[in-house]
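Quick one:
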Amino acid sequence: MNEAVIRTEDLYPEDIKKLFVETEMDREIVESLKGKQPILLVGSRGTGKTMLMKVAEKEISENFDTYRNLPVFVNLSSCTIHKNSNILNIMISRTLISLKKSLREHGFIIKGKLFQRHDNVEVNPIVKKLEDYINNTTQAKEENENDNTGVQIDDESIRTDIALLKDFLLELCEQFEIKSIIFLFDEACQVFRPSQQRIFFDFFRALREYYIVCKAAVYPGIISYGSFQIFHDATIKKVERSISSDNYVSKMRDIVRNNFSSFTPTEQQEELIDNIIYFSSGNPRLLIKSLNEIISERGSFQQSKANSIMKTFYGVTIWSEHTKLSEMYPGHTNLIDWARTFIVDAVLPSVNKLNEEDGDKKTIYFLISRKAPEVIKQAIKTLEYSGIVSLQAEGVKRRTDMYDRYELNLGIVVLSEKQPNITKRGQEIANNLSVKIAAEYGANSPSYPEYSDLVDLTQQNDEDTIIIDSIISQNIDVLDLSNTMKTKLHEYDFNTINDILSKDEEALRNIPYVGVIRSRKISNLVYNAILEYISG
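Output:
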């Protein structure tokens, strides 16, 4: 059995449709990516966002002569992002380069240099302008990003003027009788710092016109949208493959069959593959990577070897990938570490206990109160990026409180039980899941590890410290609180943001009429003010 390709980017274009295994959810998403509405495709790493965008791109291309919609796939993962880079320039550059590629693939541009003659006819002036724009947006001096003495640019404003870019795109559509350009931005926020993410979403929103449609694949969790309002500015489509769905195993089997076409498993091996399918919790990349590791080892495809490798994969590797998130978001290191501690020390033991006590019904779910400290909810979001947890339902009512329900990766749950035969256990839990059973964590759960130091100001550089000092020294009047509440805070010597930040919620409760709910609200407002800067 040959090793399967892990990432869609490594596939030849002609292999995309061969390996694509379509579910009802997948078809709905592909159709939305082909449609007129701006879409944010949200999914953890490895859930298949790129595959879905590539399938949509191919289907739009196949019907171009009929509908005159031009797909432009823009992969932003290869962008080299530096602290002082003109990120808008980079985005426009990548967009124009991808546009040029799509025009060439659809026959509007001849191969080779754009300036060469073709059938003794000069190249189209619109195409020449595109070449000029691409040259202009890619000739920045890398050795000194602040050096403005480079080559002279005839249309320099294209580098920062989105309106000019839109005018050019309209001109291009009219010239080539293109009804609309559909931009498919892949890895939209993977390599961007949070402040740059906000610029991307401003760019995404500003491009919207009747002849321009934008779609973007993003991760859940730590994404900074800025002024971008998801409800008004885009439609969310989540990439989810529930292990409880009727056709879950059969569709995931098809993924295995398509990626490992030379392997014909025995009946016993089929059962083992089904168990591994459950461990992946609907994540195709986790499934393929774990199978690659199992079959790359010498020896036959046996349960003992599968058990050993799955223990390493879901007990060590997946957590290592989560920890690497700190390299991308150093300001969130404490959040990332706290989230792991909370899951390992609190949630998993509680879930395991429920699975032991509740007879036939099993769970992989836990609930976080919507009244919990903001910092805790932010920490949980870091786990969504890595695929360790996923948000299963929002606003779940339990007694007098409202919760968000999260789903743990099944492989991690099984590994935490420390049973000898782990593969069969995954299928047993999956076949008996009940959302009615879940570990609960209220607004002030004693199970929360200490979180007062999650915003660690000492880890910032000198420039950051100066800016943060300026933020926390601001008067509390800048907070979104009633005038009465601000007056009360001042009376009790809470005059600056730092006065609140340096004390716990209990100190706030010494103020008359400030109880648990109001003290939590004030603390969350202060936390968000600091996090906004540390994130970006």
